[in-house]
Design goal:
347 residues; mainly alpha; 14 helices
């Protein structure tokens, strides 16, 4: 099953189901067998459960069975192992379920935010191509027949519409190619390069940092629920951010923690969160409810990040629509004005 992985929603559903069975006191081999009976329709999860059933029947732990199945993310396996070690497997599985469900929701929203502008680009390119290949040539032929030579007539400015459409088409094609290349590089080994380029755009930089902070707080909350020490939890969670600016801030926080500060104090001193969120974390730590506050903070960060994404889409969408309307409008106006002039002269 190498190379085949369970998606985020699948991991979330699995963790939630296993958490409820652990909560009910069902043995691991029985729990896996029950999940197989529940699904049993073939696919990645069912094949993985078959491997897990063999592993658990031989007395191996859930984390080892998940590792043998080869369909789960390393983070989920590692957190499950930590939960087994500390005796907090139930809490960890529930938190993993929430983490992967939230991650899937955010990934879906980001995908939609990118898909809509991409579709708009394709539509604009198609409309401009039709204008250049069919509409403008048709009007040009008509005016050539009426005036003898369009270039020699007073309507020669119709040629300008060609230049305007070609320029707009060129820009749209460049943007489309950049989007495709950027997606390929982002999905491959050049993600840091694309992040660096996007980081130069303020609103994109804020979205990337917001996503990094969301992943960090979700991972930190799960690590703390598994019973890990704060400094170890922060270091382990750092790898989940996938955002260099956030990682740099976290390294400075780790430095403060090595001097004896708590995570909440270190985060506040380094302005890891916005001031209001930083004070929430401090209050949660002092009241002994740090994990609960982290969960609430994670939800707020997700909402804030999605608001920024919606704001970016709100900027890009009207901009692309405006380019389409302006290009088509100017082109049609340039070819319709001579016709109106001819009709007035005939009248």
């Amino acid at each position: 099953m190498k190379g085949r992985r369970l998606n985020d929603l699948g991991v979330s559903a699995f963790c939630e189901s296993m958490a409820m069975m652990v909560q009910s006191g069902i043995q691991m081999d029985e729990a896996v067998a029950l999940l197989m009976q529940e699904h049993g329709r073939g696919g990645v999860l069912e094949q993985g459960l078959a491997v897990m059933r063999e592993e658990t029947e031989q007395g191996r732990s859930l984390s080892n069975a998940m590792k043998a199945a080869g369909i789960f993310p390393q983070y989920a396996i590692k957190m499950t192992a930590a939960g087994e070690t500390t005796g907090r497997l139930e809490d960890v599985l529930f938190r993993l379920s929430g983490y992967y469900a939230d991650h899937s929701t955010m990934a879906g929203k980001l995908k939609n935010a990118v898909t809509y502008p991409a579709v708009m680009l394709v539509m604009i390119i198609a409309v401009l191509a039709v204008m250049l290949a069919m509409v403008l040539p048709a009007f040009t032929d008509v005016y050539d027949q009426l005036t003898g030579s369009l270039a020699a007539s007073s309507y020669s400015y119709i040629r300008w519409s060609y230049g305007f459409c070609w320029a707009a088409l060129g820009v749209m094609i460049v943007l489309a190619v950049a989007l495709i290349v950027g997606y390929i590089l982002w999905s491959g080994k050049k993600r840091r390069l694309i992040e660096g380029l996007l980081g130069r755009i303020p609103i994109c930089a804020s979205i990337l940092e917001g996503m990094g902070m969301f992943r960090f707080t979700a991972a930190l909350s799960t690590f703390l629920a598994s019973g890990e020490m704060q400094d170890t939890a922060v270091i382990e969670s750092m790898a989940m951010t996938d955002c260099k600016p956030v990682e740099d801030k976290l390294r400075r926080c780790v430095g403060h923690m090595e001097e004896g500060h708590s995570i909440a104090q270190a985060a506040y001193d380094e302005s890891l969160f916005e001031p209001v969120y930083g004070r929430m974390l401090l209050a949660g730590e002092r009241s002994g409810s740090l994990e609960k506050v982290l969960g609430r903070l994670n939800g707020l960060l997700e909402e804030h990040c999605m608001e920024r994404v919606d704001r970016l889409v709100g900027i890009v969408d009207p901009l692309l629509s405006g380019v389409l309307m302006l290009t088509v409008g100017v082109s049609l106006l340039s070819v319709m004005l001579p016709l109106i002039g001819m009709m007035n002269s005939i009248g």
